Amino acid sequence: MEKKHLNVVAAVVMKDGKYLCMQRCRSHYPYTSEHWEFPGGITEEGECEHEALMREIREEMDWDIYVGRKIGTVDYEYPDFAITLTAYLCLAADEDFKLLEHLDYRWLERKDLLSLRWTAADEKLIRELIIQ
Q1: Residue 54 to residue 64: CA distance in whole angstroms
Q2: Residue 84, Cβ neighbours under 10 Å: how many?
Q3: Which one of 44, 86, 108, 114 is most buried, counting C-beta atoms within 10 A?
Q4: The whole model's pTM is what?
Q5: Which helix (DSSP H) or strand (DSSP E) does residue 56 occupy?
Q6: What's CA 41's distance to the chain center, in Å?
Q7: How high is the pLDDT of residue 127?
Q8: What is the pLDDT of residues 66-87, one digit of tens each?
Q9: pLDDT for 55-69, tens place per residue?
Q10: How far is the C-alpha of 122 from the C-alpha of 51, rounded, in Å?
Q11: How far, in Å, are 15, 20, 41, 53, 76 from residue 90 at the CA level?
Q12: Does residue 113 sit in helix, strand or coil?
């Protein structure tokens, strides 16, 4: 049986040289439950990536962001599904977001990003596109 494939967008939000890292809530997938990620979500049918990213951040964090340039894309296969994760460099006017679908957040410098337990796709993104 073919795995479900998801197109996912991620906001790599930077402020004062630090990256916004979000901790996922507990889920039925142990390999993503309570792991860290860049915020974002699944692109819906017919939706462009910029629109999807702004919508997901509004839904998950009640926050408005500016979606900037595309950083890059990574593919990853989890045991139950596969994703194509596309990251965009994003800016926000303030830090006035809410944790509606996350447990915690941290602002970390590039050198400290891998100190967290990331989802595998986000870790691949960090290793290939951010800390190279």
Answers
A1: 7
A2: 15
A3: 86
A4: 0.94
A5: helix 49-61
A6: 7
A7: 95
A8: 999 999 999 999 999 999 999 9
A9: 999 999 999 999 999
A10: 20
A11: 10, 10, 14, 10, 22
A12: helix
Strands (E), the chain: 4-15, 18-24, 36-37, 40-42, 66-77, 81-91, 102-109
Separation between Cα atoms, residue 8 and residue 15, nearest integer Å: 23
pLDDT the model gives residue 130: 87
Distances (CA, A) of 61 to 7, 44, 84, 98, 125: 20, 18, 22, 5, 22
Measured CA to CA in angstroms, residue 65 lies from 88, 97, 116 at distances of 11, 10, 24
Contacts of 67 (CB under 8 A, 6+ apart): 11, 50, 53, 54, 88, 90
